[in-house]
Input
Amino acid sequence: CRQPVFRLAVAHKSLAVQFSESRCNELLASNVASLSLFDDATPGLNRQLAGLQLAHEFESGARVGAGVVVAEQQFAAFGFGSEQIDNGERMRLLGNESSTAAGVRLNYTQPFGEQISVQAALQSKIDMQPFQSYRGVFSDPGDFDIPAEAEISARVALSPAWGITVGTQHVMYS
Output
């Protein structure tokens, strides 16, 4: 599964906003070359997540945050391998279906001096609504839930506004 991801995060002292989008399909790149990242009629599982988080910073500099994550995903499976689609225009004609749901996200950040900090985060499982047109086609009743995940990262500040972050994520598939 090829899954390009676009992520954007903006944070202030007590408020953070995050957005991400991922695309997952089994088509060759040449088949989807004419489709843009934000074209919602591409085949496969396309997912957008948006989060809003409130945070509290303690006198020690430690920070605790909690917020909501809203997800929307589209899915399209064309012919289940029984037909060949030669170009993006043909894919757009076949359509897709959308599903939405929400979950929660918690995080904790601990600074070590002025330039280094460590962050840990947990996100709940997001129980997506089922895709009605795919009910009974796959082993589950047509839903693609987003599993819970845990993250840990370290950040080195290059300036007050910019830094380098390195981290790892564990996805808790059921």
User: Anything to note?
Assistant: Residues 28-40, 90-95 have pLDDT under 50 and may be disordered. The two ends are 19 Å apart (CA to CA). Residues 85 and 91 are 7 Å apart (CA to CA). The first strand starts at residue 5 and ends at 11.
